[in-house]
Write a structure and sequence with these properties.
CATH architecture: Clam
Distance between the termini: 79 Å
Strand order of the largest sheet: 6-5-4-3-2-1-13-12-11-10-9-8-7
Helix content: 25-40%
Strand content: 25-35%
CATH topology: outer membrane lipoprotein receptor (LolB), chain A
Largest sheet: 13 strands, antiparallel
Length: 319
Amino acid sequence: MNNLLERFFAGSDAIRAWRGRDRLWAVASVGFVLVLGGQMRLLFGQEAIRQAIQQPAITASQRLPSADKVVDSYLKAVGGKKRVAAVRDATYEWTIQLKDQQIGIARTFTRMPASVRTEITFGNGQLTSAANARSAWKRGLGGELQTLTDSEAAAARLQAVLDAARLVDVKKSNVLARVVSVKKVGPEPAYVVEFSLRSGARLRYLFSTTTKLLLSIEDDARQTTTRFQDYRLEGNLIEPHRVSINNAGQGELTFLLQRASYNAGLADSIFDPPRGTEALDVVALLREVSRNQDVLEKRFTEYSFVQKETSREISSKGE
């Protein structure tokens, strides 16, 4: 879902006008803050000290829990690991809002072990993206198909693994996890769990230290932040009914969950690129092959060695 937003925010005239007004408001606000900055700095500093004294902080000296413990607590909070693991595939239907006004609808599909597809429909067309173990791709409003590469593809595949598996036994998919810090999300602190692949893909999941629920996902590769709110029962699981996605500070879309269905037997083929219209980006493919060759040669030099052998013939006289 994240990698579709940049195209949407760059397209609509109405959105461009909205962004223009927001920029003017932001410039005015910044100027106002700069004028008052000298007078307010001391006040803000004193207020920060007061809050630090009143509210106990989680310091570096306190030991962070393991990633397994944080994830297990989350799974327990949303219904239990056994119930979560029983979901083999899921379909979600959403309405999309911008500034409390509905502008479209969306559907998301997940299928174990690592397949995700998103369809976002606006008045002027549909955006589609998908990722699985074989490929990562997206299709724009004009119907153009693009294969994701490099860090964007790696991040999409990593999120597909995490979303489809619902964080259950992700180590089996060679996903590494570690708690890196504690960070505030709004008023509450959260454990920051970094999930990564050996390819270099990284995503940060922020779990509440109190409710144990997932509060947000930070994706540096695609420059998106996703926030999860309004957790309620949907079937046998607790699901977020409000998901807000901010794309590189360009704007924020809000997805409101209308319906969820589980284990409908989704076909694996719906996560593959459309047949007959696949566009092969030859330049990007050759560039990626070249980079992989450079890495291969570097690895070869790390493990290769030179062996010298000397053969000597000795006569019957011992010479």
